[in-house]
Design brief:
Largest sheet: 5 strands, mixed
Number of strands: 7
Organism: Fusarium oligoseptatum
Distance between the termini: 22 Å
Protein name: Methyltransferase
Order of helices and strands: EEEHEEHHEHHE
CATH topology: Rossmann fold
Biased composition (Basic and acidic residues): 12-22
Structural class: alpha/beta
Radius of gyration: 19 Å
Region (Disordered): 1-24
Pfam family, one: Methyltransf_23
CATH class: Alpha Beta
Length: 218
């Protein structure tokens, strides 16, 4: 029997004019919900997948406890998250770069908005604390652009650069204007400088990624 899939969106979205309508499998049901409110699903899940929710979750202990409570005994949760702080192993990402400054200011803004970025290294411990067993962590590096020499990470860098580049202004505009008092035109000018660093292949930076999964005791 086919399983039931229930993706949860954090806000409404509308199909844009001219956008092709795609078919949705009969066992998929989309819901718009607030994850910080009480979860009211009518039946438990076998698997909960959480991806890129950092700074959207107010309290990770509460959030992961809800995941645990929503699972059937023996069910799994998987959390995939990005570390806000990009790194470089050869120090080509300088602390005074626009990219580093952007990350620092973004972190500061999310604290003011009461949605601070969670240290992804702590997620596995939080999962264990709330009751998950056999918590396992896999680590990955996503390059900022195609600077790596090997084909796999070069391609990954191309994808990640396109993804971050397309979202750069959207990620920045609200936090900077609402929490830091910047004007919209100031944000856009700064984002243009950040984008230069993002695209600079001389900067061998990457974002650490974790995939953390655990099981609800039977």
């Amino acid at each position: 029997m086919a399983g039931r899939i229930m993706p949860t969106k954090m806000g409404p979205s509308e199909r844009r004019h001219g956008e092709r309508k795609t078919s949705v499998p009969p066992n998929v049901q989309f819901q718009i919900d607030d994850i910080d409110e009480e979860w009211t699903y009518s039946m438990p899940f076998d698997f909960v997948h959480s991806r890129m929710m950092n700074s959207s979750v107010k309290d990770w202990r509460v959030y992961l406890k809800k995941c645990l409570q929503s699972l059937a005994p023996g069910g799994y949760v998987e959390v995939q998250e990005i570390d806000l702080n990009a790194k470089s192993d050869d120090e080509t990402l300088r602390e005074d770069s626009n990219l580093s400054r952007w990350l620092k200011l973004l972190s500061e803004a999310t604290v003011h908005l009461d949605r601070p970025y969670q240290d992804i290294r702590q997620i596995k411990y939080i999962m264990a604390e709330v009751g998950f067993k056999d918590v396992t962590v896999d680590y990955f590096k996503w390059p900022t652009n195609p600077w790596p020499k090997d084909t796999k990470h070069k391609t990954l860098g191309q994808w990640h650069n396109a993804n971050v580049g397309s979202a750069l202004e959207a990620l920045t505009l609200a936090p900077f204007t609402r929490a830091l008092g910047w004007k919209a035109e100031e944000v856009r000018a700064f984002v243009a400088q950040v984008r230069k660093d993002l695209n600079d292949r001389r900067i061998h930076a990457y974002w650490p990624i974790v995939s953390v999964y655990g099981q609800k005791p039977a």
